[in-house]
């Protein structure tokens, strides 16, 4: 038989577990209290009886049986919880407040013998009661038998009342604990049911649903906030994927159309004998390479955004910057540009060197591509006052308007003045992905300004954190 969901909840089970532990502990404490109290009461009763026996036997030794008899009469008249009985050699009663000894005759040995017994009594309503008592029967030198005992029924009654009170308190704790467990379980079940509804809705494809947040600051609230943050990122990722798919389909339409047109023209020229089939295949390969390059760049961006920079290592970024400057200086000179570099030494960073090299290549290549002949491109690598490592490329090209600087960092975004240049609009998007994967950022600012009919130019800075323990 399957239990109701409430009784299968972890909080309710934990409540029952803690209650079981409490009951076990309380029972052990109760048993200890009872045993300790009973032992203490018995020890005190035995001490009192022993003191009475010593006093009475002292009277017997010094003054004889008549004096002992008188002492017993006096004690009996005073009343109290002690029991007295003096018997002759034949165990006939001489005096006392009980008629017969409650101990067996064989119990009276040299030095006395202690024993427990039940004392029959009647209460105020005439009901017979059996009360706990202890006593000792002592043989006297003249052959008489002296019994001294004490009624400990009141102590036993007190212990019984104490036990009942403790059990009553335990039962109340159990009731309150189970009730509290039910309330807590109900609250947790209500909160968890809201989270479960969100999970089920997400499983069905609804990424806009969010878990309710009560702002109580407890664990369930933190879980709901974490789940909402995860759903925000998931929704953003899915939207980015959809946007990337739409953008790829839109941006690849032109290259595919162009490739088809070129292939069709090449086929017609080949049929007419104007070109060879090898030339036609070369055109097709060039267009296919462009498409593969676009796809590889998109995959690289997705890899960086999904898992960060792979295989990070600590290396000197100044050496990388020097290699990039030497690589692109000839390209700048071939286009008639003044290409210069300024590289500070000892720039230790932690990251993936191939990805950073690709990002710097994209920035420098864009600067050379969009700067008209006669302009200038300056590449710098330095340490900021904050300790961050900055790579910057400043050119005297047309620049990017303020309102478009955020947009050009997105995928497949190309401004109107760049439509005549080859490219897919993924260069700065890859730079941004590399920067974010390394915990850095990309900054776009205006260049040196308009001069000689050129400008205002653009300054692109890739800012990265230094390697741990190297910031100064």
From TrEMBL:
<keyword id="KW-0597">Phosphoprotein</keyword>
<feature type="domain" description="Histidine kinase">
    <location>
        <begin position="247"/>
        <end position="468"/>
    </location>
</feature>
<dbReference type="InterPro" id="IPR036097">
    <property type="entry name" value="HisK_dim/P_sf"/>
</dbReference>
<keyword id="KW-0808">Transferase</keyword>
<dbReference type="GO" id="GO:0005886">
    <property type="term" value="C:plasma membrane"/>
</dbReference>
<dbReference type="InterPro" id="IPR036890">
    <property type="entry name" value="HATPase_C_sf"/>
</dbReference>
<dbReference type="InterPro" id="IPR003661">
    <property type="entry name" value="HisK_dim/P_dom"/>
</dbReference>
<dbReference type="InterPro" id="IPR003594">
    <property type="entry name" value="HATPase_dom"/>
</dbReference>
<keyword id="KW-0418">Kinase</keyword>
<keyword id="KW-0472">Membrane</keyword>
<protein>
    <recommendedName>
        <fullName>histidine kinase</fullName>
        <ecNumber>2.7.13.3</ecNumber>
    </recommendedName>
</protein>
<dbReference type="Pfam" id="PF00512">
    <property type="entry name" value="HisKA"/>
</dbReference>
<keyword id="KW-0902">Two-component regulatory system</keyword>
<dbReference type="InterPro" id="IPR050428">
    <property type="entry name" value="TCS_sensor_his_kinase"/>
</dbReference>
<dbReference type="InterPro" id="IPR003660">
    <property type="entry name" value="HAMP_dom"/>
</dbReference>
<keyword id="KW-0812">Transmembrane</keyword>
<dbReference type="Pfam" id="PF02518">
    <property type="entry name" value="HATPase_c"/>
</dbReference>
<feature type="transmembrane region" description="Helical">
    <location>
        <begin position="165"/>
        <end position="184"/>
    </location>
</feature>
<dbReference type="Pfam" id="PF00672">
    <property type="entry name" value="HAMP"/>
</dbReference>
<feature type="domain" description="HAMP">
    <location>
        <begin position="186"/>
        <end position="239"/>
    </location>
</feature>
<dbReference type="InterPro" id="IPR004358">
    <property type="entry name" value="Sig_transdc_His_kin-like_C"/>
</dbReference>
<dbReference type="GO" id="GO:0000155">
    <property type="term" value="F:phosphorelay sensor kinase activity"/>
</dbReference>
<dbReference type="InterPro" id="IPR005467">
    <property type="entry name" value="His_kinase_dom"/>
</dbReference>
<keyword id="KW-1133">Transmembrane helix</keyword>
């Amino acid at each position: 038989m399957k239990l109701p969901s409430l009784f299968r909840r972890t909080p309710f089970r934990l409540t029952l577990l803690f209650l079981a532990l409490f009951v076990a502990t309380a029972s052990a404490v109760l048993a200890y209290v009872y045993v300790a109290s009973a032992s203490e009461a018995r020890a005190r009763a035995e001490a009192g009886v022993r003191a009475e026996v010593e006093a009475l036997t002292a009277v017997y030794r010094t003054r004889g049986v008549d004096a002992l008899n008188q002492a017993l009469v006096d004690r009996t008249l005073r009343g109290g919880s002690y029991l007295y009985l003096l018997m002759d050699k034949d165990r006939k009663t001489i005096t006392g407040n009980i008629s017969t000894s409650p101990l067996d005759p064989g119990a009276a040995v040299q030095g006395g013998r202690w024993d427990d017994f039940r004392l029959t009594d009647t209460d105020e309503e005439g009901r017979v009661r059996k009360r706990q008592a202890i006593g000792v029967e002592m043989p006297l030198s003249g052959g008489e038998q002296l019994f001294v005992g004490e009624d400990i029924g009141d102590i036993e009654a007190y212990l019984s009342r104490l036990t009942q009170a403790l059990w009553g308190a335990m039962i109340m704790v159990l009731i309150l604990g189970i009730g509290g467990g039910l309330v807590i379980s109900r609250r947790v079940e209500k909160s968890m049911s809201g989270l479960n509804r969100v999970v089920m809705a997400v499983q069905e494809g609804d990424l806009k649903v969010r878990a309710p947040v009560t702002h109580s600051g407890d664990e369930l609230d933190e879980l709901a906030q974490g789940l909402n943050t995860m759903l925000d990122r998931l929704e953003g990722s899915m939207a980015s994927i959809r946007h990337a798919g739409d953008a790829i389909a839109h941006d690849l339409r032109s290259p595919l159309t162009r490739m088809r047109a070129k292939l069709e023209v090449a086929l017609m020229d080949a049929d007419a004998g104007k070109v060879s089939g090898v030339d036609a295949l070369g055109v097709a390969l060039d267009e296919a390479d462009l498409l593969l390059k676009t796809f590889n760049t998109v995959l690289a961006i997705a890899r960086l955004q999904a898992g960060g920079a792979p295989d990070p290592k600590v290396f000197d970024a100044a050496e990388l910057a020097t290699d990039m400057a030497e690589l692109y200086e000839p390209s700048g000179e071939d286009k008639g540009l003044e290409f210069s570099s300024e590289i500070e030494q000892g720039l230790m960073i932690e990251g993936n060197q191939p990805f950073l090299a690709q990002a710097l290549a994209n920035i420098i290549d864009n600067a050379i591509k969009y700067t008209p002949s006669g302009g200038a491109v300056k590449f710098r690598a330095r340490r900021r006052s904050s300790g961050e490592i900055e790579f910057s490329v400043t050119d005297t090209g047309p620049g990017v308007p303020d309102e478009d600087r955020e947009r050009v960092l997105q995928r497949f975004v190309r401004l109107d003045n760049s439509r005549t240049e080859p490219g897919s609009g993924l260069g700065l998007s890859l730079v941004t992905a590399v920067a974010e994967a390394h915990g850095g950022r990309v900054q776009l600012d205006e260049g040196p300004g308009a001069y000689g009919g050129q400008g205002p130019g653009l300054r692109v800075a890739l800012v990265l954190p230094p390697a741990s323990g190297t910031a100064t």
